[in-house]
Amino acid sequence: MKSFDITTVKFNDQGLVPVISQDAETQEVLMLAWMNAQSLQETLETGRMTFWSRSRQAFWRKGESSGHVQTLVEMRIDCDRDCLLALVEQVGPACHTNRRSCFYTAIRDGQEVELSQPEA
Amino acid sequence: MKSFDITTVKFNDQGLVPVISQDAETQEVLMLAWMNAQSLQETLETGRMTFWSRSRQAFWRKGESSGHVQTLVEMRIDCDRDCLLALVEQVGPACHTNRRSCFYTAIRDGQEVELSQPEA
Questions:
Q1: d(CA B51, CA A24)
Q2: DSSP character at residue A6
Q3: B111 to A27: CB separation less than 8 angstroms, yes or no
Q4: Shortest CA gap A7–chain B (Å)
Q5: Is the full-model pTM beyond 0.90?
Q6: Cα A109 to the center of its chain, rounded Å
Q7: A95 contacts chain B (CB < 8 A)
Q8: How far is A109 from chain B (nearest CA, A)?
Q9: Buried b (16+ CB within 10 A) or exposed e, B16-50
Q10: Most Cβ neighbours (<10 Å): which of A3, B79, B80, B86?
Q11: Cβ–Cβ of B74/A106 closer than 8 Å?
């Protein structure tokens, strides 16, 4: 075993790394978002999934305004150290469209098929 | 239902979109790689997962040299249209280290823990 050193994560030229959030219980892939070193540090310290919003150029503490909090169960890193997989507990929908997962559109025979509806 | 139009995918400034490969049967997340428009088109047409290798700057037909082919079961796109989730059938290990998944390292209490060993 070795200590995890955040400087060994390969952030891209914008200082960001993609993070896949997967439901720890159902294994459903919920979303992909981005973290910089500071938001990764905060996530590991607090257990609250904290991303970097590329559109707002600001920290994005998931669920801070919506209440749809995402709690870290386990963080994993890939072989190239340039992508993270977070197993999480998700309160309510992960997607801003109010669906559980952001990946609700399938491409079947050249057509787009909606797999889920917004939660009431 | 509407037709899927590849030009509506939001490729980044390098013309790439991240693609999560998930085992369609076990739901294990296997890897994350990148596609450009042409490799996405080829993937949808052939059912063989075809990425764009950023290191080699070339098409990467998964399994072409290793035999560890990845076959598309269903392609999904997220709400922002800037990330894809591919449900796949994976022959053998997905990772170049010969492990089933690239995400074999967990971060637990500040330590790195290896979750799986290379397949024999």
A1: 27
A2: G
A3: no
A4: 13
A5: yes
A6: 29
A7: yes
A8: 9
A9: bbbbbbbbbeeebbbbbbbbbeebbebbbeeeebb
A10: B86
A11: yes
pLDDT digits (tens, 9 = 90+) for B32-85: 999 999 999 999 999 999 999 999 999 999 999 999 999 999 999 999 999 999
Q: Name the amino acid, one letter, at B97.
A: T
ipTM rounded to 2 decimals = 0.96
Q: Which one, of B67, B70, B79, B78, lies nearest residue B21 by Cα? A: B70
Question: In the structure encoding, which two tokens stand for residue A92, read together?
Answer: 């309510």
Residue type at position A32: L
Amino acid found at B44: L
User: Any idea what DSSP says for residue A8?
Assistant: G
Q: Give the best residue of B28, B31, B56, B103 to mutate against chain A (max A CB count within 10 A).
A: B103
Give yes or no for A97 touching B (CB within 8 A). Answer: yes
Express each pLDDT in B81-98 by its tens digit.
999 999 999 999 999 999
